[in-house]
Amino acid sequence: MFNRLLLLLAVLIGISIPHMAKADPADIRASGRSVVRVVLVAKDEGKLNFVGHGSGVAIAPDKILTNAHVIDLARRDRSIVIGIIPSDGSKSYGGFVIATSQGNDLALIQVTDGGKIPPATFFTGPVNDAENVAALGYPGAVDRAQGLQLSDMIQPMAPVKTRGTVSGGRTSRQFDTILHTAPIASGNSGGPLVDNCGRVVGINSFGSLSDGNDAEFGFAVTNKEVLAFLRKTNQNIQTNSSACQSVAELSRKERERDADARAKVAIAKNLEQIKQDKAEEKARLTARNAIINERENAIALAALFLVFAVLAFESGGILFIKNNRNPAILTSAAGAVFIVIAVVIFFTRPSLGDVEDRIKIANKPALTATDTKIETSEGQYLCRFNPDRSRLTVSQVKDIPFDWKNSGCVNGRTQYGRNGAKWARIFVPNDEATVSVNSFSAQQGTFTVERYLLGIAQMNKARDIRGRYTVAQCSADQDVISELEDMQKAVIETLPAQPNERLVYDCEKVD
Questions:
Q1: Which residues have CB under 8 Å from 128's CB, separation 6+?
Q2: 251 — phi, psi (to 5°)?
Q3: Maximum alpha-carbon separation in the chain
Q4: How does pLDDT run across 36-95, given as a tens digit for each residue?
Q5: Is the dihedral of CA 387, 455, 439, 395 positive or negative?
Q6: Which residues have a Cβ under 8 Å from the Cβ of 492 and sit 6 or more positions away?
Q7: Which strand (E) or helix (H) includes residue 342?
Q8: Is 168 helix (H, G, I), strand (E, B) or coil?
Q9: Are strands 177-180 and 121-123 parallel, antiparallel or unpaired?
Q10: Which contiguous run of DSSP H or E holds residue 258?
Q11: Local structure of residue 32 (DSSP, 8 states)
Q12: Secondary structure in 3-state letters for 301-332
């Protein structure tokens, strides 16, 4: 009851409750690409007999990490061979042990037959109490329930995924472990325990057995033990220590950021409009007062010339009476000229309707040399990683420098296509099970990399689409750019709704 009241109070007064990233099934599914079944088979007079199996996780395309107890029989009996069964695809591979550590129940297997499996990323940050985790592997209880035979178990299949939480502060006495509640069974040994971002936080080793065969609680070898073991075997692995952020939450924040930016622009425009309106009103009042003064001066001047005309006519009349004919004519002519001048001045005086014309003339900017300069976003950029706006799970980040052209050309060789207000380029490599969508916005000053960790079928589909198009290097030809954009739209339609990783970089010109 107290917790409900506290939550209600927080909502009412707007207290910000820390957000914990929820597990995205796509991330857990992507981490499953690195999980394998480790099968032990005995050769007996040409026949293969199933001995046992466990799970493992790829630390490199051709290296599998598992528990030492999983492969112990194969290490002691040469007649027992190891099979590596990926979670995806149609091929299985052989393997042999290259290192073991009985002290912390770890072993390393070399994959043979040209097998290449997407390596996992290991989380090197703290694993917090009550944190959500998932165990991935091949529990024998599930195999038995499905009635799987050896012929079935040597075929690639997705690992079983179970969820639980970490129970901090408890570990085994033999070596450093993580106690968790994700259900595991015999066969899960050697499989990874992953966080909400799909990063490995430990290797499942053993469990506390209940009355049945499944463990109510599991113990996973910590990455501290894993890294120490791999250092001794001179193995480099993918690691990451960034906090796990939700893509949905980041997207929400980006929408709020964009809305705030638009609101600030709108406010700035309104303030500028108010400032402009005040300036125009001031200019209008100034122009009106000037016109009124000019009208009054014109009327006064016209009246003055009328007075001169009257005086001239009177003087001409007097001279005519005195028989001064020629001076009288000249004086009267001058009076007529004065009348004409007065009429012209009166009718050409400024009109009150001239106010707007004078404002336009007054506000017309003077043409200078700088007015002919075209604003451009072209130039050298340096983009720095922004962790607050990013979801970093598998990549290694560093500053990105590049040369940008308004035509969408990067570094003089890579052409980008239009994607709304941004420029984008999709990369579908042949040697990596990842599709990357890179986008750049010079107006926003951001460079974004979104990575999708895909299975073999999805990757093959994306590669097939990419292969239908011939996309040249940088080109100003609109047909070439249109073909690139068509290819990218077709690939995007095959991708999941959200990426597994989003890297945002803040960019600035450096030239």
A1: 166, 168
A2: -65, -40
A3: 159
A4: 999 999 987 778 788 999 999 999 999 999 999 999 999 888 889 999 999 998 899 999
A5: positive
A6: 426, 437
A7: helix 325-347
A8: coil
A9: unpaired
A10: helix 247-321
A11: G
A12: HHHHHHHHHHHHHHHHHHHHHCCCHHHHHHHH
DSSP letter for 467, please.
H
At position 441, the amino acid (one-letter code) is S
Closest CA to 195 of 156, 152, 255, 246: 246
> What is the value of pTM for the model shown?
0.72
Mean of pLDDT values over 440-451: 93
Encoding tokens for residue 124?
A: 């090197």
Q: Is residue 182 a contact partner of residue 196, using CB atoms and an 8 Å limit?
A: no
Beta carbons within 8 Å of 182's beta carbon, 6+ residues apart: 133, 134, 135, 162, 163, 164, 165, 193, 218
- How far apart, in whole angstroms, are the C-alpha atoms of residue 159 and residue 26? 14
Phi-psi region of 115 (alpha: psi -120 to 50; beta: other; left: phi over 0): beta
Which of 141, 143, 144, 183 lies closest to 161 in space, CA to CA?
A: 183
Q: Which two tokens stand for residue 429?
A: 């490599």
- 118 DSSP 8-state letter: P
According to DSSP, the residues that pair with 239 across neighbouring strands are: 122
H/E run at residue 403: strand 400-404
| Residue burial 316-326, b: 16+ Cβ < 10 Å; e: rest | beebeeeeeee
pLDDT tens, position by position, 237-295: 999 998 888 877 888 887 887 788 778 878 888 888 888 888 878 877 887 788 888 88
Q: How far apart are CA 247 and CA 450, in angstroms?
A: 10
Please write down the HEC assignment for all residues of 365-399.
CCCCHHHHCCCCCCEEEEEEECHHHCECCCCCCCC
Is-contact 201 194, C-beta < 8 A? yes
CA-based torsion, 63, 186, 173, 199: positive or negative: positive
Amino acid at 253: K
Residue 444 and residue 169: Cα distance in Å, rounded?
46
Give the Cα separation of 224 and 106 in Å (integer): 12
Close Cβ partners of 204 (under 8 Å, ≥ 6 residues apart): 55, 67, 135, 137, 184, 188, 189, 190, 191, 192, 193, 218, 219, 220, 221
